[in-house]
Structures are given as C-alpha cells and as structure tokens.
Design goal:
- The structure is a single chain.
- By secondary structure, the chain is mainly alpha-helical.
- The chain has a domain of 31 residues.
- Helices cover 43% and strands 0% of the residues.
- The protein has 3 helices and no strands.
- It is elongated.
- The protein starts with a helix and ends in an 8-residue tail after the last helix.
Length: 67
C-alpha cells in the first residue's frame, strides 16, 4: 500500500490544493480592544476599567469637545 502511494507520487507528482476563498465580512471586529464591552470596561477586567476611565476623561477634556 505504501509502495503504491510512493510510486503514484513519483509518476504523477504531489498536488497541493490552493487556498479556499472565504467571503469577506466588512464589519467584523478583529481585536478584543475594539469590542464595546472591553472599551466600556463592562467585562470586569481592572485594566479595561482603567482604560475606559482614561478614555472617558480624555473625551471630556475641553480640547476634545466639539464647538
């Protein structure tokens, strides 16, 4: 059986199949940091809560407000 496989490979060569095309999703979130629960610190992570607080303070700065 193994001899037949090796002989077949020698005669016909090895065929590698190409990559399958997947449909592109335009609105797919790729990183955890961009998800709403992570941005707002809702998933109970201390670092996420701290980052959410920093984002909130930065957004409330007078220089960041639209006039």
């Amino acid at each position: 059986m193994a001899g037949e496989d090796i002989e077949h490979i020698i005669v016909h060569g090895v065929v590698f199949k190409g990559k399958k095309d997947k449909p592109q999703q335009t609105n797919k979130i790729k990183t955890k940091a961009k998800k709403k629960t992570y941005i707002t610190g809702a998933h109970k992570s201390a670092s996420a809560k701290m980052k959410a607080e920093i984002r909130k303070r930065r957004a409330n700065r007078p220089s960041q407000k639209k006039q």
